[in-house]
Design brief:
Elements (H helix, E strand, L loop, with lengths): L8 H13 L42 H26 L3 E12 H6 L6 E8 L4 E6 L1 H11 L16 H22 L6 E8 L13 E11 L2 E10 H4 L8 H8 L5 H12 L5 E4 L7 H5 L17 E5 L2 E11 L2 E9 L10
Antiparallel strand pairs: 1-5, 2-3, 2-4, 3-6, 5-6, 7-8, 8-9, 9-10
Main location: other
GO biological process, one term: bacterial-type flagellum-dependent swarming motility
GO cellular component, one term: plasma membrane
Length: 348
């Protein structure tokens, strides 16, 4: 650039002022303008939205509401199963729901040990079959407890179950299916039964390898020994009842009438319970001086007539009216009436 093309200080200040106002400055007519430098591109704003990868080989066919309902359903099941299994083994057993996921059937099968305890379960009226897999790590210690073993951990055995061991495991799986049936009865009454038991999971194919299944995993703890139990539910089996697993209908299914069997079961448990029964002979008031001066043989007079029935309380609640008497040389009462409304008898 020659000395004739150099801008003066006044021209430079005029250009800077025009750039600040947002208007292009007019260059002098006798002086050619210098080419404007290219402005840097504006910075790209980073989106705050989280990008979630989607695998087309593993489509999520079960909705989030259905997954939450299945999780809530099996959380209650795990508590009841733990109580029943503890009573069967006569020791404390912890059962914890670890996850409820959906994956392909091939991924589930190849993630299992071989050999294992692979139970094929029929779940009528649903189509298809469920699968219950119990890991040998926790299964053999439970068999040892059923045979009278102690709490000491037993060596882990990697072999198929014998015929006798399968019969013992049948007690555990029967308890599992019984509690599972109770957990599902709010959604759909199921008739669950074991079709067959396999040791190699790859020999059983209930659905195509790429079919989506719901895997419900439980962690069982027997003392210091821990192991997994997996319940496999094919999606095509629960697809017809997917609307019953939604959150809105779940609350309505939870509110149901008590069945006669449940009433009878609770009644049998209460029949052996011990309750406190108190017979109120009479009620009166005396002074503190008279109370201090009471001695053996003193007589306390009341306004209660001898023909008036006595009030009988059960656990503090008025339940019966009776009259006093003697039975086989012992003081006794004879029930004459049942109090239908305890509130009316409070003032007696």
């Amino acid at each position: 650039m020659s000395s004739d093309e150099v801008l003066t200080q006044a021209e430079i200040e005029s250009l800077l002022a025009s750039v600040g106002k947002g208007k292009p400055a007019e260059a002098p007519r006798d002086v050619p303008t210098a080419p404007a430098a290219s402005s840097p591109p504006p910075p790209v704003k980073k989106s705050r939205e989280k990008i979630i990868p989607y695998d087309f080989k593993r489509p999520e066919r079960v909705g989030k509401e259905q997954m939450r309902s299945l999780q809530t359903l099996h959380e209650g099941f795990s508590r009841n199963f733990a109580a029943g299994l503890s009573a069967m083994l006569r020791c404390m057993v912890e059962v914890k729901l670890t996850s409820v996921d959906q994956l392909t059937y091939s991924e589930f099968v190849f993630s299992l040990d071989n050999p294992t305890c692979f139970n094929l379960i029929r779940a009528e009226p649903l189509e298809g079959h469920f699968i219950l897999d119990i890991n040998p790590t926790i299964l053999y210690p439970m068999i040892d407890r059923l045979l009278g073993g102690g709490r000491e951990p037993t060596p882990i055995t990697r072999r198929p179950l014998s015929e006798i061991e399968r019969r013992l495991v049948g007690r555990i799986t029967s308890l599992f299916l019984e509690e599972l049936k109770r957990a599902w009865e709010n959604v759909l009454p199921l008739e669950l039964s074991v079709v067959r038991v396999e040791s190699n999971p790859q020999l059983v194919q209930i659905v195509p390898p790429n079919e989506v299944i719901v895997l419900v995993s439980f962690e069982l703890a027997l003392g210091e020994v821990r192991g997994m139990a997996n319940l496999c539910i094919p999606y095509n089996a629960i697809e017809p009842i997917a609307n019953k697993l939604s959150a809105n209908s779940w609350a309505s299914y939870g509110k149901r009438q008590v069945s006669p069997d449940a009433t009878e079961r609770i009644g049998r448990a209460l029949r052996t319970s011990t309750v406190q029964l108190v017979v109120q002979l009479a009620r009166t008031t005396i002074t503190t001086q008279d109370l201090i001066g009471l001695r053996v043989g003193d007589i306390i007079t009341t306004k209660k007539d001898i023909h008036t029935p006595l009030l009988v309380r059960v656990e503090g609640i008025p339940k019966f009216l009776a009259r006093p008497g003697i039975f086989k040389g012992h003081k006794a009462i004879c029930i004459e009436d049942v109090i239908s409304d305890p509130a009316q008898a409070v003032g007696e």
